[in-house]
Specification:
Shape: globular
Structural class: mainly beta
Helix content: under 10%
Order of helices and strands: EEEEEEEEEEE
Largest sheet: 7 strands, mixed
Strand content: over 45%
Number of strands: 11
Number of helices: 0
Radius of gyration: 13 Å
Length: 124
């Protein structure tokens, strides 16, 4: 059974940085197509970044140039580096994964494994 455990959230001021981690248990992370989603209060869950099994990366327009998704094969962990944070980045951030698929994007129903989330708060 695949388990995803996020960490690294916190409170920062606008312009600051955070690095989120998603530890993968029960499967080899490099064999999963994985993504980060976020959900702000009162809003739908939205895709932020995804990484394929061949390390193709895909970003939402709102975070291009500011966020970077990566995967550590030795650590079996997915990362999301958040730079130049804005108040509108405030949300709960979720890690998601799907097996038996090389490419994945921002449709939540694509994913069969989810973490519980880590909260990011950006103040102005």
């Amino acid at each position: 059974q695949v388990q995803l455990v996020e960490s690294g959230g916190g409170s920062v001021q606008a312009g600051g940085s955070l690095r989120l981690s998603c530890a993968v248990h029960g499967y080899t992370a490099s064999r999963l197509c994985m993504a980060w989603f976020r959900q702000a209060p009162g809003k739908d869950r939205e895709g932020v970044a995804s990484i394929s099994t061949v390390s193709f990366t895909y970003y939402a327009d709102s975070v291009k140039g500011r966020f970077t998704i990566s995967r550590g094969n030795a650590t079996n962990t997915l990362y999301l580096q958040l730079d130049i944070l804005k108040p509108e980045d405030t949300a709960m951030y979720y890690c998601a994964a799907v097996s038996m698929r090389n490419y994945c994007y921002f449709t939540p129903l694509e994913y069969n494994y989810w973490g519980r989330g880590t909260r990011v708060t950006v103040s102005s």
